[in-house]
């Protein structure tokens, strides 16, 4: 079980590093994606306002 936990932690660290590099290479694209995701989450979780 500890071995599986270590593998998962390593994978998460790799993904975090990849994401960080992607953001550094394409900051405008990353910002646009974050804004789009934020907008969608606000629509989904915001509920209806009558």
Structure description:
This protein is mostly helical and about 50 residues long. The protein has helices at about 1-25, 25-45. The radius of gyration is 17 Å and the shape is flat. It starts with a helix and ends in a 5-residue tail after the last helix. The model has no long low-confidence stretch (mean pLDDT about 90).
Shape: flat
Alpha-beta classification? mainly alpha
- How many DSSP helices? 2
- Fraction of residues in helix: over 70%
User: Strand-residue fraction?
Assistant: under 5%
Q: Give the low-pLDDT segments.
A: none
Rounded to the nearest angstrom, the radius of gyration is 17 Å
Distance between the termini: 50 Å
Return the string of H and E elements: HH
> How many extended strands?
0
The largest β sheet comes out as: none
Mean of all residue-level pLDDT scores:
92
Short description:
The protein is mainly alpha-helical. Helix content is 86%, strand content 0%.
List the defining traits of the structure above.
flat, 86% helix, 50 residues
List the helices and strands and how they pair.
Layout: H1 2-25, H2 27-45
Helix pairs in contact: 1-2
């Amino acid at each position: 079980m500890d071995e599986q936990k270590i593998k998962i932690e390593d994978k998460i660290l790799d993904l975090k590093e990849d994401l960080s590099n992607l953001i550094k290479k394409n900051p405008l694209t990353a910002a646009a994606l974050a804004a789009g995701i934020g907008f969608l989450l606000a629509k989904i979780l915001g509920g209806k306002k009558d």
